[in-house]
Amino acid sequence: MLPFARELLRRGTQVAAADPLLCKGISSRQLQVVPSGSALPVIDLSQISSELAAAAEGADLVVLEGMGRSIETNLHARMSCDQLNVGMIKHPEVAAALGGRLYDCVCQFRRSSTQA
Hints:
With 116 residues, the protein is α+β, with helices and mostly antiparallel strands. It has a domain of 58 residues. Helix content is 32%, strand content 16%. It is built from five helices and three strands, in the order αααβαβαβ. A three-stranded mixed beta sheet has the order 1-2-3.
């Protein structure tokens, strides 16, 4: 979705502010889009951009979304804050490895590794 929105903005498309709460979050910087530092659909958390590392410092929750980033490479990652992994299984090999089916959705919440 973000690449599509970026292309629309590049072309000069104007979109009305349909959601005042989201607009407020963006203007107050509570809601930010930060590059991961990876051009791949997966993300190696040891190789994230310094901008992402700085933005995530002190976070209470990290959300990893998508099959590659949340399921294939980081489903078992342990963080010092709470984490939410969400995605859809799109490869038969991943479904077999997880004991699921193709197009099953995964939603896993994990408390921080520093909490009991």
